[in-house]
Specification:
The protein folds into three domains: about 10-50, no CATH class; about 65-260, Glycosyltransferase, CATH 1.50.10; about 365-615, Beta-galactosidase, Chain A, domain 5. The protein has about 650 residues and is an alpha+beta fold. The termini are far apart. The strands form five sheets. Strands 7-8-9-10-19-14-13-12 form an eight-stranded antiparallel beta sheet, with no helix packed on it. It is about 35% helix and about 20% strand. The longest helix is centred in the first third of the chain and has 22 residues, at about 185-210.
Length: about 650
């Protein structure tokens, strides 16, 4: 059979007919233009299945008749007359059903019921979720807010419209149960919202039975939120005929997803530490619900979550945040894992959740997550420890940035070299920049950054451990990884191999070596992004250093360069092109120092850098790498005094 593909313009017309947004659909046209028809077909199928979180247009409507037909009058015989009233659409049927729900002894729904809370002065209904709108309606009676709530409910009940998973997971249960006991929504509409919960659970259930679920298109945290909403319906409404089967199916799906998404090292296939925090919060909610409602689930699920906990704790910076890799704005570990000590007897978990006040930190210091490829090097677990997390790993399944070979560095109680953040999920200029390699502590070749987004999705993640070298010891940690494309444009065959060596002794420092392998002349730029609250980054012979009153400080020094001269450039708060910005939290843009070490030369070439954190104000400093003789060493000159650190035999110069 000969496969043909429509022209890209036809694809654009098709996309206009869809009432759902399909992530990654643009790649289909790119593959087709390359003549990779079978790949384009497979990618189209994968992307279309990725639309599971949205409802496809159907002819279904929400009626009281349907609600009555769905009730189980055999297991719940007291519902039989109410079901008849609803099915026949008799007056009072909706009120009778809601009165039944208020009077029932089980399940205990107290944790889903919130008393109305008046909004703060100047409350703006624009963009608010349904629970916030409901609170404002019940407490103020504001007709403008009531109109906004009515519009949101209409979105719930219109099968042709998208309703975000933030509504289905976090808001729908609280909206329904709070209004059941505190009013604010008329009886018929509230009954239809309950019926929506059934339809949403059914949609999740149907999608979970696809032979190839949307595993390669949608990030893990979305799937856990989807499962959460589905489960909450089955807990709140056992009276439906389908509830027992749906609950059995959702727990099986949780087992299934956990087995797919949690790697042996405890990382998740997204490779996004902040969203792993979100998933662990979802796990804590499941464990709470299971304990409160007697749910049974496989022990292997609990074991997988324990691996996730250990992974997150191992990644943590001294400030109890995970690295800003990918879209990790949900970074502060205690905020997301606080419920888990109730269910796990893990001293390192108690320590992490309490901010170091309880329990004990892990017995190890540095650690490697070999499936996702994150390598954490630290001097200890104190707040003023020296710390680096190096990304030598996979792209991940969702919320990715082009940041391989990048890192974050903290020392003596503050971040120094940072990831630029994620800013938002909008078309804002900052968002468009922070996902690029240019916004990370990595390497550009001829000005081009990484573009792993264009490679085949089956390369984005795997449960098979990476083969990156890694050793850790009392004094030295060493890791290494490489990047060989794809780049943002065709620059030929070029591979960047980066090694990071951490010296934990006195003084602590990081030695970074970049090998650029190729056959042509290339311009190479190493990027270093400083935290936004560092006011001065000054150029010194061989590199740059911070000037923080009273310290601590950091110097970045070029110790050796093969293949041509290297210039140092500093940028801060620039546009066209964008350079020198970070987003320390959502929707925030801050100018910050960005330093470029740039030089052109024939490949192969090599560059060696020393990153020296200093607890106090850093004196004049320089560094030399001595690898030509028989005793390889690094010599630091700090304040006019030389310190020579001999390199151990297991680290090849």
């Amino acid at each position: 059979m000969i496969h043909t593909m429509p022209a890209p313009s036809i694809w654009e017309r098709y996309s206009q007919l869809l009432t759902v947004r399909i992530s990654g659909i643009e790649r289909v046209g790119e593959l087709a233009e390359q003549g990779r028809i079978e790949d384009a077909r497979d990618h189209l199928i994968s992307s279309a299945r990725g639309a599971w979180q949205y409802r496809w247009p159907t002819g279904r409507t929400y009626t009281l008749r349907r609600l009555g037909e769905e009730l189980d009058t055999e297991r719940f015989q007291a519902l039989a007359p109410i079901a008849r009233m609803l099915t026949d659409e008799e007056p009072g049927g909706a009120a009778a059903f809601l009165d039944y729900l208020r009077r029932r002894a089980a399940p205990n729904v107290a944790s889903f019921v919130g008393a109305p809370v008046a909004p703060a002065a100047g409350f703006n209904p624009q963009g608010q979720y349904s629970v916030a709108l409901w609170n404002a309606v019940v407490t103020t009676g504001d007709p403008a807010v009531k109109a906004a709530l009515d519009q949101r409910i209409a979105q719930y009940l219109d099968p042709h419209l998208v309703i975000t998973w933030h509504e289905t997971d976090g808001c729908w249960p609280q909206l329904v149960m709070s209004s059941l006991f505190h009013g604010g929504i008329d009886d018929a509409t509230l009954c239809k919202l309950i019926l929506f919960g059934l339809d949403h659970a059914e949609q999740c259930n149907v999608t979970s039975h696809l032979s190839e679920p949307a595993q390669t298109s949608i990030g893990g945290n979305h799937l856990f939120a989807w499962i959460s909403a589905w489960l909450k319906f089955t807990i709140l409404f056992p009276e439906f005929r389908r509830t027992p089967a749906l609950q059995h199916s959702v727990i099986a799906r949780l087992d299934d997803e956990t087995s797919k998404q949690v790697m042996p090292d405890g990382s998740m296939i997204e490779g996004c530490p902040g969203y792993q925090n979100c998933c662990l919060y979802g796990a804590s909610e499941f464990l709470r619900l299971a304990a409160e409602h007697g749910l049974q689930y496989p022990g292997r699920v609990r074991a997988a979550w324990a691996r996730m906990i250990r992974h997150v704790v191992g990644l943590m910076r001294p400030d109890f945040c995970v690295p800003f890799f990918g879209d990790s704005h949900d970074r502060y570990v205690p905020q997301y894992l606080w419920q888990l000590p109730r269910f796990y007897d893990m001293s390192e978990l108690d320590w992490a959740v309490s901010g170091g006040k309880k329990g004990r930190p892990p017995a190890y210091t540095s650690c490697a997550a070999t499936s996702i490829g994150y390598y954490t090097m630290r001097s200890g677990w104190e707040r003023d420890a020296v710390y680096m997390c190096f990304d030598g790993g996979r792209f991940g399944q969702g919320h990715q940035h082009e940041d391989k070979l990048g890192f974050e560095l903290c020392a003596f109680g503050r971040p120094f070299l940072v990831d630029a953040g994620d800013h938002s999920y909008s078309e804002h200029w900052m968002r468009e920049w922070v996902v690029l390699a240019q916004a990370h502590n990595t390497v550009l070749i001829d000005g081009a950054g990484q573009c792993r987004w264009r490679e085949d999705r089956d390369k984005w993640y795997s449960h098979v451990p990476l083969k990156n070298p890694w050793t850790t010891g009392p004094v030295w940690d060493v890791t290494e990884a490489d990047f060989a494309g794809p780049y943002e444009r065709d620059i030929g065959d070029v591979k960047v191999r980066r090694r990071v060596v951490f010296h934990k002794g006195a003084p602590p420092f990081f030695w970074i070596t970049d090998w650029i392998e190729g056959t042509r002349t290339h311009e190479v730029t190493e990027l270093f992004h400083f935290a936004h609250d560092i006011g001065v980054v000054e150029e010194i012979p061989g590199g740059v250093r911070t000037r923080i009153p009273g310290g601590p400080d950091l110097a970045v020094l070029l110790m050796a360069a093969q293949g041509g001269g290297v210039s140092v450039e500093r940028h801060c708060g620039e546009r066209n092109p964008t350079r020198g910005w970070v987003s320390p939290e959502l929707y925030r843009e801050e100018p910050a120092w960005e330093v470029h070490f740039t030089g052109a030369g024939a490949t192969p070439m090599r560059r060696d850098f020393l990153l020296l954190p200093w607890r106090a104000t850093l004196p004049d400093v320089s560094a030399r790498l001595n690898i030509g003789g028989g005793s390889p060493a690094i010599t630091l000159t700090i304040g006019g005094r030389d310190t020579t650190i001999a390199l151990p035999s297991h680290i090849k110069p």
